[in-house]
Amino acid sequence: MVIRQDYLSKIRPFIGKDIIKVLTGVRRGGKSVLLEQIRDEIHSPNTIFLNFEDLGNQHLCEYNALHDYICEIIGSNKEKFYLFFDEIQEVTGWEKAINSLRVKFDADIYITGSNSQLLSGELATYIAGRYVSFVVYPFSYAEFKQVSKNYTFDDYIQYGGMPFLSSVDFAPEISKNYLQDVFNSVVLKDIVKRNKIRDVDLLERIISYALANVGKSFSATGISKFFKAEKRTVAPETILNYLKACEESFLLYRLKSQDINGKKMLKVNEKYYVVDHGLRKAVVGENLENIEIVLENMVGLELLRRGYKVCVGRVGEKEVDFVGEKNGEKIYLQVCYFLNEASTIKREFGSLLEIRDNYPKYVLYKEGTFKGNYEGIPAVKVENWLLG
Hints:
Number of helices: 14
Radius of gyration: 22 Å
Strand order of the largest sheet: 7-6-8-9-10-11-13-12
C-alpha cells in the first residue's frame, strides 16, 4: 500500500481541529484508502467509520437516521470522537446531520464525496465556512513508482494511476476490464444518476469525443457540427451541460485559455483533460499510439495535483501548453514527445521565449538527442519532472 504522504501532510494540521475535512475526487481514485490512512494515523478507540456505498449502511442514508445512529453510539460520552463518512453524498440531507454532530459533540469529522458540487448546494450553507477541502487524484508517477518498482514509465503511460491496478500487478486484461468498469461507474452513478440524464448514448459519445481530443481546442458548437455530420442534431447547450456534468464528477478537467502578455483570460481555445489517462485507454484505445496527447495530459494533471491553478497560454499566434500559478508564482511548460530536429526545437522553445517575465520555463520531452537548454530555457525529461 502506498502511504499518500503528500495528502496526509496537508491534512495533518487540521486533525483534531473543529473544522470538517472534506476529500473529493473521482470515484475509485483513492479517497477511501486515504480516509483509512487518516484513521490509522489518529489511532483512537473513539472512531466511527461508515461507507455509504455499503448496502449494510443503506438504512443510514437519510440525515435523521444517520444523526440518531451516531448519537446512540456516543451517548453522553464527553471524549473526542473521530467520525469518518465515506461517499457522504449517498445520504439525503447529509449536511444537516454533519452540522448537528459537529455542534452536539466533541467530534473531529472527515467526509468524502465523488462530486465537485458536494459543497455548493443549498444544503451546504449548513457547513459554510466550517470545512476545508482536498481534491484526491489517482496515483502520480512518483506514487506509481513506489508501489510498482519493477514497472517502467511506458507502463505508467499505458495503465495510468488508478490505485487498484497495483493489486493485480497491472495484468493487461484485468486492468482493461477494471478501467472500463470504473468508467461505467463514473458515467452511470456520478453523471447519469445525479444529473438525471436520459440520453446515455449521447453522453457516452460526447465523452468519447472529449477523450479522443484530449489537449485539443474544441467547442460545443464544433461537437454539434460533428454530430450533425453523423445525421444527429444536438444543441450546443446540451453538449455544454453534459461536459459540465463530467467536470463535476472529476472525470474531465477544463482548462481556460490565457493571453500571457496581455494578462487576460480568453473565451476561446479551452481544452479538456481526463483525470487519469488509463481511463482514456479503456475507452478510446492504446495510449502509446497517442503518446504526445497522453504526455500532455499527465503533465496537466500533475500541475493540478501539485496545487497549481492551470490554464492554456497564448502568446500572439503561438500556444504554451500550460501556465501554472501558485502562491503568486508562475511556471510555463511545453510538452513534446521527440526533441531532436531543429524545427521542433525552434517551435517548442519559441513560444516560451516570447513570454515577457522571469518565471521558470521548461520544455518537457520523452525522447530526443537535445540536451541542456536553449537560450536559457532548460529541456527536462518528462518522467524526471513528474518525479519532482
